[in-house]
Every structure is written in C-alpha cells, then in structure tokens.
Design a protein that fits this description.
443 residues, 9-stranded antiparallel beta sheet, binds adenosine monophosphate, binds glycine
Length: 443
C-alpha cells in the first residue's frame, strides 16, 4: 500500500509540475534546445516563436515577430506559458527579459543592461578596462581624430568593430592604415543601424575557443567548451559566417587554462555586473583567443552559440528544464550538471552562395532516408514546411551532428550521413575539426 501511495503522490507531483515552455528563435540552436527540453520529464508542451521545420515535429510553432514584445506577451498568456527561454541575442539586447518580468512572466536570460555585454563592444571593453580583464588594447572612436591617435601607437593589423549588434558582419581585420580609416568612416556614417561608434583593437594572434557558463543571480556553473569554424571555406579561408561547424569539448581549454578563464574573466565580469546592481543570469558565452596559454577575451555573447549549442547539448546528461527552472529561481547551486564523456561535432549545411546572396525555398528531399542512431542528430536551422514539403528558409539550413569517441570517426560518420541527403543546392565544409584531427589522429 505504501508503495502505491508513494507512486500516486509522485504521479500527482509530475502532473502538477508539468510546464508549458515558450522558446524564442528559429535556428539550429533553438532546435537543439527544443529537443533537449522535449526530453525533459517536467514538460507538458513547448511553443516556439517562430521555430523551424525541425521544432514543428516536437513543439507548436507560432509565426510572430520576436521583436514585437507585446504580441509575444499576448501569445505567452494565451498558451499559459510557465517559462520562457530566449535563444538569440537581438530580443535580449532589446530588453525582452525586462519586459516579460515586468509582466510577471518567468524568463531565462539576461536583462537589457547585462545584455550590453554583447550589444555594445564599447560597454564590453569598458567592463574589461575597469576590472583588469585581459583583452586586446583598444580605443572607442566616434570621430576621425580618435582613429588617427590609435593609429599612432598601435601597429597593424588593426581590427575595426561596429559598437552595436551587426549580425556577425561588424568586424573587419585591416592590414593598412587606409583600410582602418575606411572601415571606421563607414561605421561613423551609419553602416550599422545599432550604433555609429567604432571600436578599434590590436590584432591578437592565437587559437580561438568558446567557453560557456550558465548563471543565476548568485551562482554560475560550467556549461561546456567548443570550437567554431567561422570562415566559409575549408582551411579557414573566405569571409566570416555565423559558423560552419563546431566540435566539443575544445581540447585547448585544459584544466589549467580553465582556472585562468574563471579567475581572470568570468569572476570579474559577474562581480562587475553585481556591483552595478544588475547581476547576470542566463547563458554567458565567452569568445577567447588563447596566446601562450593565456586567455584573452575577444567577445561576450549573452546566449548559447550557434552552432556551438548543437555540439554541447548532445553531451548534456542533466534535465535541461530542471536547470532552467533552478536558474530562474536562483537555485543553480542545488543542481549538479552532468556531462557525457563522449565528444561531439556538427557540420553546417548551407545554401549555395551563403554568406553572400543565396536562394530560399529550395526543396530538401531524402532526409528521412538517413537512419539516425542514438548518437546522430539532425538539427534544422533555416527550414520550413511549405506545401507539405521540406524547404530551405535561410543560409544555414541543417546541422548534421554525431557523438563518439574520436573526432575523425565522428566526422566520417557525419559526412556519410550528409551524402545520403543528396542536396544539390547546398555546400558544407568537410574539414571541421582539422586542427585537432591533424594534430593527433587519436583525438
Ligand atoms: P567578434 O564579433 O568580436 O567575435 O569578432 C569576430 C571574429 O573576428 C572573431 O571570432 C575573431 O576571429 C576575429 N577577431 C575579433 N577581434 C579580434 C582581435 N582583436 N584579434 C584577432 N582576431 C579578432
Ligand atoms: N557561432 C558563433 C556565435 O554563435 O556567435
């Protein structure tokens, strides 16, 4: 009797703790988040604003402009949402968290002030300067004469950055003084709507890595490492993209380096925001340049990375909704986040022409011909269902992911899966992980 009673109470607990979740965004990152949340025992339903063809299989997609906060709020009330998870940076930087909290909606993500860590390079650099966080030397410029003075004491190449959000297009690495002046002038003249200030930086040599944490107002926990491949072509050639593929973990982030990242970058950042009465909560992703075993901060992102999320989440063993719930209640301390020892990799399938001009609405066939084992995943990014068919709806279209023991074998498995797709309108990099794979074939 006592066991039956216990089970009855447990069932009641499960029924009453089932949550309705809203997920904001439509990329591969959001499909990966959606799939993890779908596996949670705490979830009743997931609503995606607006989602993609992948999330449509496990959640309810609703077409809405995610920057129209009032409309989003109406839908949240209508669907009796218990928790909102925000995927991309733009709504965070524009203050969706503050808006929803004011309307008594529980939401996971940083507020508008804290989101300036990503939303303003000038803000980020000032935080670094005031708190001795290692980063490239810099100057915030709003006029030609500021640029001149930086050129007088910093050697080339110089990195010119737009101060505000620029969808990955705001950074130019300049090898001549004339190019620095031109890139800065374009920013002053309003090339990017978000701000007409430019941040000039010294160029740092080294290897890049991404380090992730999840934070609430009191605590933070490690949330994985990864390495992205930003350039469009193999061997890291060609223009920058949102990311062509990634792997996790990043072997360059050793225990020793991690200690430095935490003590020199993470702790001072969180302390600074607390001191400014806006403690950070949400995912925080620090983009690092590693030079002689020392970490330098290149950028903060106030969200998970895309495609980094698609390699980190397959390795997560703890219920992600429990993690989000604890984080929004400032109880992260109480939860232990466990990770799979296996490695993971993702290759991004793009529409031909990306990151320049590309066609949309291209048919994708054969996707169901790929037999996925428990270790393989296909995350949709720019996809939609149109007339009952799967079609492309963006530049980055699918993320083909696998986990395993060895990066070379994982990559071969992914490439075999991609070949079954026979998508003629697309392209992808076959060399994701080349740095780790060439260094040590046993990796
Ligand atoms: P960001 O948007 O600041 O992350 O810059 C985009 C990319 O530009 C980075 O991932 C780096 O590859 C490169 N980059 C940015 N700042 C620097 C720097 N100071 N030195 C070298 N490379 C940089
Ligand atoms: N993959 C780079 C980013 O998410 O910003």
């Amino acid at each position: 009797i006592s066991l039956a009673f216990f089970l009855f109470i447990y069932k009641l607990y499960i029924i009453y703790s089932d949550m309705n979740i809203a997920l904001i965004g439509s990329g591969g990152r959001e499909h990966a988040l959606c799939k993890k949340m779908y596996e949670s025992e705490l979830v009743n339903k997931i609503v995606c604003f607006p989602g993609n063809a992948g999330t449509a299989n496990i959640a309810v997609n609703i077409e809405v402009d995610i920057l129209n906060f009032k409309k989003v709020l109406k839908l949240i009330k209508f669907h009796k949402i218990d928790l909102v998870v925000v995927g991309p940076e733009e709504p965070l930087v524009k203050g969706i968290v503050d808006f929803l909290k004011k309307n008594r909606v529980k939401v996971f993500g940083p507020n508008k002030y804290a989101a300036k860590l990503e939303g303003s390079k000038a803000f980020m650099k000032k935080i670094c300067e005031q708190n001795n966080i290692p980063t490239a030397r810099f100057k915030i410029c709003s006029q030609k004469k500021h640029v001149q003075s930086f050129l007088n004491y910093c050697k080339l190449p110089i990195v010119v950055k737009a101060d505000g959000l620029a969808a990955g297009k705001g950074v130019t690495i300049c090898k001549t003084k004339a190019k620095v002046q031109k890139a800065a002038d374009e920013i002053f003249q309003g090339k990017f709507k978000s701000s007409n200030k430019a941040v000039l930086e010294e160029f740092l040599e080294g290897e890049e890595a991404s380090y992730f944490i999840i934070a609430d107002n009191k605590e933070f926990k490690f949330f994985g490492t990864a390495q992205d491949h930003k350039r469009v072509y193999e061997k890291d050639k060609g223009p920058n993209t949102g990311g062509m593929g990634a792997y996790s973990p990043a072997p360059i982030v050793t225990k020793k380096l991690e200690k430095k990242v935490i003590s020199k970058i993470i702790n001072p950042t969180l302390k600074a925001l607390k001191k400014n009465k806006n403690p950070y909560s949400g995912f925080l992703y620090v983009g690092l340049m590693i030079q002689n075993n020392e970490p330098y901060l290149i950028e903060y992102n106030v969200r998970m990375g895309d495609p980094e999320c698609q390699v980190i989440l397959p390795r997560l063993k703890t219920d992600i909704v429990k993690i989000f719930k604890n984080a929004t209640e400032n109880k992260l301390k109480k939860i232990k986040i466990k990770w799979e020892k296996q490695k993971s990799m993702t290759i991004v399938l793009c529409a031909k022409g990306y990151p320049g001009n590309y066609k949309k609405n291209l048919r994708i066939t054969n996707i169901d011909k790929i037999k996925l084992s428990k270790k393989d995943f296909i995350y949709h990014a720019g996809t939609k269902i149109s007339g009952g068919e799967l079609r492309s709806n963006g530049g980055r279209v699918l993320n083909v992911t696998s986990i395993g023991k060895n990066f070379l074998k994982i990559r071969n498995k992914i490439l075999t899966n991609i070949k079954k797709l026979k998508w003629n309108y697309g392209f992808y990099r076959r060399d994701i992980g080349w740095k780790v794979i060439n260094k040590n074939e046993n990796n």
